[in-house]
Design goal:
Structural class: mainly alpha
Distance between the termini: 79 Å
Number of helices: 10
Oligomer: single chain
Largest sheet: none
Shape: elongated
Strand content: under 5%
């Protein structure tokens, strides 16, 4: 690649990073809907021409941020099984689970997004991506034919995302390693009996 093209590419990358950081910084102060493109470019110390050279709207900028985060999340989700032909879930070691490391490493971004008016959009992006790869990449050899596989996938994904966003909303109360260990224990826990409140009260 010619040197001039490398310089242009670097400038594009720098401007995109600056615009993304500006949007996230503004979202920490106000809702996404209340932010203008003028505010974004002024915060980033660029002009509107630079913004429109890269994006058509602030929604395009937000979509890029969410898409990039989702792709990195999916990479971390794939980590335990991407290099094996048979994925033995019941033998999965806690330190092979990389999703919590991903969220912790990007904690500042997730903290802002989880408290903003774009949270539903972020969750939808991650849910859709997870549903796609679990249905296309993880084929269970032993299926309970009475269980609807799509409903099972939806149940499992919502449970995982619920756990993750609870952790984010708790301001990362626990370490990634603790969350890894707890997830493995939850996956392998199969209770069959539970005492009811009536039994516990001795009535």
């Amino acid at each position: 690649m010619p040197e001039i093209e490398k310089k242009i590419d670097r400038r594009i990358v720098r401007s995109k990073i600056a615009l993304s950081e500006a949007l996230l910084a503004l979202m920490a102060q106000k809702s996404f809907t209340a932010i203008s493109i003028t505010e974004i470019v002024e915060y980033a110390n660029y002009n509107r021409g630079t913004f429109y050279a890269n994006y058509e709207s602030k929604e395009d900028l937000l979509n890029e941020i969410i898409t990039n985060l989702t792709q990195k999340f999916i990479q971390s989700f794939r980590a335990p099984y991407e290099k094996v032909e048979v994925f033995r879930i019941n033998e999965l070691p806690a330190n092979a689970v990389m999703i919590f490391e991903h969220f912790f490493q990007n904690s500042s971004m997730y903290a802002v997004l989880s408290q903003s008016d774009v949270l539903p959009k972020l969750k939808e992006s991650m849910f859709t991506a997870l549903k796609k790869i679990t249905q296309e990449e993880l084929i269970y050899s032993e299926k309970d034919h009475e269980i609807d596989q799509e409903l099972l996938a939806i149940y499992s994904i919502h449970a995982l995302l619920g756990l993750i966003f609870h952790w984010i909303e708790s301001e990362f109360k626990y370490s990634p390693s603790y969350m890894q260990e707890q997830l493995i224990k939850i996956i392998n826990w199969h209770p069959t009996v539970a005492k009811t409140a009536l039994r516990s009260s001795g009535k």
